[in-house]
């Protein structure tokens, strides 16, 4: 139980860093627009380093290969759901130009179905 919860928490932190690395330069355009693309790429790589510092341990702790509760398939679908959940919060809080629409919710429903089918024994 602890390994499962630790895995999910580490994935949430990991995805928070990755979302910031991938989309932060868009959300914080006014603060970063004076920098060129090379500087933004390097900044994103620096942020992504922290993503890996949480992602790799999450996968190792959670993997059944290392005594964790999840198969590699389950880890991947958990990561996708966490990633989309973290992105949704980020978009709603920082990206005021975009709104959450019905088709986004339909996509989330498809992910929930993916979780159901992947975890089905």
Q: What general outline do the C-alpha atoms trace?
A: flat
Radius of gyration over all CA atoms, rounded? 16 Å
Structural class given helices, strands, pairing?
mainly alpha
Relative helix content: over 70%
Number of strands: 0
Instruction: Show unreliable segments.
Output: none
Largest sheet: none
> What is the average per-residue confidence, as pLDDT, rounded to a whole number?
91
Write the layout of secondary structure elements.
Layout: H1 2-27, H2 29-32, H3 37-62, H4 72-94, H5 102-119
Helix pairs in contact: 1-3, 1-4, 4-5
Account of the 3D structure:
With 121 residues, the protein is mainly α. The protein has one domain (2-119). It is built from five helices and no strands. The protein has helices at residues 2-27, 29-32, 37-62, 72-94, 102-119. Helix 1 packs antiparallel against helix 3 (37-62), helix 1 (2-27) crosses helix 4 (72-94) and helix 4 packs antiparallel against helix 5. It is flat, with a radius of gyration of 16 Å. The mean pLDDT is 91. Pfam families: DMT_6 (PF04342).
């Amino acid at each position: 139980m602890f390994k499962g919860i630790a895995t999910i928490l580490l994935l949430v932190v990991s995805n928070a860093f990755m979302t910031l690395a991938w989309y932060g330069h868009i959300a914080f355009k006014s603060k970063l627009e004076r920098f060129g693309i090379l500087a933004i790429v390097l900044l994103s790589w620096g942020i992504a380093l922290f993503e890996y510092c949480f992602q790799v341990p999450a996968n190792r702790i959670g993997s059944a290969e290392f005594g964790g509760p999840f198969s590699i398939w389950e880890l991947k679908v958990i990561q996708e759901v966490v990633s989309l959940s973290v992105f949704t919060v980020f978009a709603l809080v920082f990206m005021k130009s975009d709104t959450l629409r019905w088709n986004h919710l339909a996509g989330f429903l498809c992910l929930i179905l993916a979780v159901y089918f992947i975890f089905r024994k």
